[in-house]
Amino acid sequence: MNGLVEMCLKSELRNDKDVDFYLKTVGECILAILAFPPEYGWLLWFVFSIMITNFVWIFWQEVIKDPFVCSLPWLPETKGVAVRKAIFLMALPGQLFLGVVVAVKTHSWLGALGIVPITILIGYFTAKRVSLKL
What we know:
It is built from six helices and no strands. By secondary structure, it is mostly helical. It has one domain. Helix 2 packs antiparallel against helix 3 (about 40-65). The longest helix is centred in the C-terminal third of the chain and has 31 residues, at about 75-105. The chain is elongated.
């Protein structure tokens, strides 16, 4: 399972087009958060966190259909656990960065302290929900 997760992460990090798309998406989300009033910041962060998770799921679909990955005998249970872990790990940096932007914009230092555990929980549950699409 960890081998499949590692293969997915390495494949995506070496693909300049996907990394560029991910960074542009996070950047556009940051601009949207900054453009809206601070009262909507946390709501936008939640919505964009789900959106980033869904984008990462598309990246997973590309990796899992790669001929090399398909040539290896992965069990369906292994793929299910690996997709959850890979999506969670790939989406987490963008979600954390968006959360920090919202916390700085709203001057909510209590929110800034709570953003890490909340982001991990939201990231885990959205990755779990998205992985059920398999």
